[in-house]
């Protein structure tokens, strides 16, 4: 019963995290113009991975897509790639974990086979979470660096636009963290599902995986 609960909780947690990283990837406000030192605050700009937008306090917004990949900064391309890889891995992990759930009976599938599928899905969820967290963190780090540079320029009298963290970053961080937690829960559930003879082998695999991700 405890194994079923742990496995189900890991699956649900991963589903929620998966939904959040999809939302974060599609959101347009990864970075938002800092209006603290701006005289006119009724108009502001914000950017995401796919669009650059101008918003007004009245609620009217106009967005322009990034038409070509070749003119995009390498940072944006890398963040896109990390988020897409995370989404793809999480999608595969969800499909695999559906067959691994102990509450779902598929023919005469043995517990060992379900344990293998549970471990596979758990690793996929964990890697997807790491990809999402890495993508968001790289983007956030660039915002911090540019903010410091633009702050110096503004203090010297230059009219530069500073950007700060947008809501999409926090959605991505939470989603990646939930995927990582869900993957760990699935891996722990796999440990309890495995026969005693093969449990040590999988424990060693988990230790090696933890070393690689640390």
Please outline what is shown here:
This protein has 5 helices and 5 strands.
Fold and architecture overview:
There is one protein chain. This protein is an alpha+beta fold. The protein has one domain: Up-down Bundle (Butyryl-CoA Dehydrogenase, subunit A, domain 3). It contains five helices and five strands. The protein has helices at 2-26, 74-100, 111-155, 167-193, 196-213, and strands at residues 31-33, 43-47, 51-56, 61-65, 163-165. It has a five-stranded antiparallel sheet with strand order 4-3-2-1-5. Helix 1 packs antiparallel against helix 4. The longest helix is centred in the middle third of the chain and has 45 residues, at 111-155. The chain is elongated and about 65 Å long.
Task: Report on the biggest sheet.
Answer: 5 strands, antiparallel
Total of DSSP H or I helical runs spanning 4+ residues: 5
Helix and strand string, N-terminal first? HEEEEHHEHH
Per CATH, the class reads: Mainly Alpha
Give the CATH topology.
Butyryl-CoA Dehydrogenase, subunit A, domain 3
CATH architecture: Up-down Bundle
Strand order in space, largest sheet: 4-3-2-1-5
Radius of gyration: 22 Å
Distance between the termini: 32 Å
